[in-house]
Amino acid sequence: LPPRILIDAGAFETLLLSAIEVYPSEAIGLLFGTYSGSNFRCRLCYPIQAAARRSRFVYYSPFIVNRLIEAESSILGYPLVGMFHSHPNADARLSNEDRRDFLDGGYRVELVVSVRKNRSERPWVLSNSKLSGTVAGYRFELVGYVRSGRRILKAELYSPAIEVFNALVELRRSINSLESPSDLAFLRAELEETPALRVKGLWISERERRRRQRLILRLLQRFHSLYR
Length: 228
Ligand SMILES: [Zn+2]
Description:
Elements: E1 4-7, H1 9-22, E2 28-36, E3 39-47, E4 51-54, E5 57-60, H2 62-75, E6 80-88, H3 96-105, E7 109-117, E8 125-127, E9 130-135, E10 138-148, E11 151-154, E12 156-158, H4 161-170, H5 181-199, H6 206-227
Helix pairs in contact: 4-6, 5-6
The structure holds zinc ion (ZN).
Zinc ion (ZN) is lined by residues 85, 87, 95, 98, 112.
């Protein structure tokens, strides 16, 4: 079985927003969460703000990272599981330098996020270990890697946030059209159960995933009929 990386909805949104924020420069940040064997759950994504950026380069101080790791473990108690960085207008593939940094980095997960401007809307799909889709006029491709000793393996990636994005596309709604902030909070609460099941190795079936998607669609439709 390939390693698995689950990204909580809030962490996933932060990841995408941080790549959009500095586009076309590189975003970089830390992933905090939990793991069991080779199954990782990213609960918090923290973009590093104090970094020097270009489109093919980003530099940050290891002192800042250590300060963040200490602060995080005393605030929420999640260990650092890995890092992410974006590849603006380039593929989501580890470069030779990325590979070297990852092997020497001492953490287990590296997420590479390809981001390009793209007006057309596409649903989010996982295909050949690549999670791709569109949000807010950008096309994303994410590839997750897990280090096992000196080996780097591609992981299966999933985030419950993509169910919301896809449900909204299907309803031809933007995220802004959810009238009340509690609409989204309610949806998120529904979705939170999914990764909890998965991190224990109980990867949910395609049938269960579809059932959840139908549930979300029904919820969204109910919200809209309530608030119209
Ligand atoms: Zn890179």
